[in-house]
Structures are given as C-alpha cells and as structure tokens.
C-alpha cells in the first residue's frame, strides 16, 4: 500500500471503520466539528463514495455477492482516492473517511470471501495516516443497531455484531502487522464526543499546531 508523503504542508487522511452501530458516522461528525473549531480545514467523506462506482456498489449490494462485490468496493476505493481524497489532501485538508480500507477487509467476509484475497485486492490503496478501528461489546452494538435499524443485508444476519466485531479485530491485526498507524477506540460505554476527542488528540500529535501551519 502506498505510504503517505512526508510533505509537511499536505493534509492527511484519517479513516474510521468498525462494526455497524459502533458509532462511525456519529463520531466522524463530532471529530469534524472539533477539528473545524481548531481552525483546521476538514473534508468529510464516506465509502461507498458518492461517485459512479460507489453508486453502482450501493445499487448492487442487495443482489451481487462475494468476490464480484469485493472488487466493486475496491474499485470504488481506488477511484475515491484518485478523484476526491488525494486532491483534498494535496489542498491541505484533513480528510475523514467514514469507512475505508478496513471495511474492505471485513464486510465481504460475510459472503465468505477469504481475507487474504481482500488484502491483496486492496494492497495498492493509499495508506491512511491514521486508521481508527472502533471496537465495542457486541451486545451493546447489537442493541444500538436494533434501535437504529440495520442499514444493509449484512447487518440483518443473526449474530452479525459478534462476527463483525471479530472480523474488525482481525483486520486491525493485519493493519498493525503491515505497519499502519492504527488506533482502537472502544465505543461500548464512551460517549461519541469523547471518542472523537481521543482521535483528535492522536491526530494533533501528527500535525503542526494551526498557528505554525498558517
Ligand atoms: N457512544 C454511543 N452511545 C450510545 N449511542 C450511540 C453511541 N454512538 C452512536 N450511538 C447511536 O447508535 C446508533 C448508530 O450510530 P452510527 O453513528 O449510525 O453507527 P455506525 O455509523 O457505526 O453504524 C445511532 O442511533 C447513534 O445515535
Ligand atoms: C466500504 C464498504 C462498504 N460496504 C457496504 C456495507 C453497507 O451495505 C454499505 C455501508 O453502509 P453504511 O450506511 O455506511 O452502514 P453503517 O452506517 O451501518 O455502517 O456499504 C461493503 O460491503 N464493502 C465495503 O468495502
């Protein structure tokens, strides 16, 4: 996977992945607010992307399975990086992606795709400067998912929260072994604002203070 450049003026990419109901979207919103309040330039994005391949992936997720869907999501990821993420990073933004590479290592496992295949498929994807993996007690997130309502066919499977939590822990190990900068945040009991502040603190250790950057 491509390493981030060491140009101090460039922005950076932080990805937030984790099981459905862990709080990805909620935490991304809080994180963006915290960074904006510090005077940072922030760009929030998500996968599947809003581009043509992302739209196709969303449309086909109910009916297409396994390797074909994994390739479609990986294609969306490569296109998302080239057309949206990299230009924003080069413009100095902190890009926050609600789902990215780790989701690509996890979700298609529900269709039985081998994690080694998923790794190889995503091997050339831009490496996030910080890959956040949300972790949580499967019972807690199963309750949250039920209250919110499942967003997709994977989340409707019986016991999906337990399985998904396990898959994300394994993905986290793969990323660590490959030398990624990862951060696990347990969201079982912590309010989302607090999880966002933990991520903000980790990011601030990677970038210059706002005054120095201007
Ligand atoms: N730390 C938390 N404590 C309690 N409820 C939460 C917490 N984080 C998120 N929620 C709630 O759980 C549901 C799922 O959150 P969401 O951000 O959509 O998760 P995800 O994007 O990971 O699927 C939402 O109804 C949200 O308000
Ligand atoms: C990024 C990615 C998403 N997906 C699918 C899973 C979902 O159907 C959809 C993401 O939906 P989303 O609404 O983000 O789910 P949630 O808010 O519950 O986390 O995209 C994959 O199957 N593979 C991937 O690599």
Q: Could you walk me through the main structural features you see in this protein, from its secondary elements to its overall organization?
A:
With 214 residues, the protein is an alpha/beta fold. The chain has a single domain (12-207), classed as P-loop containing nucleotide triphosphate hydrolases (Rossmann fold, 3-Layer(aba) Sandwich), CATH 3.40.50. 50% of the residues lie in helices and 13% in strands. It has helices at 24-37, 52-60, 66-90, 101-106, 115-121, 138-148, 160-177, 192-204, 210-213; strands spanning 12-17, 42-46, 94-98, 130-135, 182-186. It has a 5-stranded parallel β-sheet with strand order 2-3-1-4-5, sandwiched between helices. Helix 2 (52-60) packs antiparallel against helix 3 (66-90). The protein starts with 11 loop residues before the first strand and ends with a helix. The model has no long low-confidence stretch (mean pLDDT 93). Thymidine-5'-diphosphate is lined by residues 20, 24-25, 47-48, 61, 73, 99, 103-104, 107-108, 151-152, 154.
């Amino acid at each position: 996977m491509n390493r981030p450049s060491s140009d101090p003026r460039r922005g950076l990419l932080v990805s937030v992945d984790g099981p459905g109901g862990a709080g990805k979207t909620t935490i991304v919103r809080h994180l963006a607010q915290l960074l904006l309040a510090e005077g940072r330039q922030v760009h929030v994005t998500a996968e599947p992307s809003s581009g043509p391949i992302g739209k196709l992936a969303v449309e086909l997720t109910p009916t297409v399975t396994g390797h074909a869907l994994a390739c479609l999501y990986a294609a969306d990821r490569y296109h998302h990086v080239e057309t949206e993420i990299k230009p924003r990073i080069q413009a100095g933004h902190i890009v926050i992606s609600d789902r990215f590479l780790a989701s690509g290592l996890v979700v298609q496992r529900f269709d039985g795709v081998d994690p080694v295949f998923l790794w190889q498929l995503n091997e050339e994807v831009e490496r996030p400067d910080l890959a956040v993996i949300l972790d949580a007690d499967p019972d807690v997130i199963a309750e949250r998912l039920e209250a919110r309502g499942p967003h997709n066919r994977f989340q409707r499977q019986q016991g999906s929260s337990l399985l998904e939590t396990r898959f994300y822990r394994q993905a986290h190990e793969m990323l660590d072994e490959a030398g990624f900068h990862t951060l696990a945040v347990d969201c079982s009991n912590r309010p989302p604002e607090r999880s966002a502040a933990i991520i903000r603190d980790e990011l601030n250790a990677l970038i210059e203070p706002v005054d120095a950057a201007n």
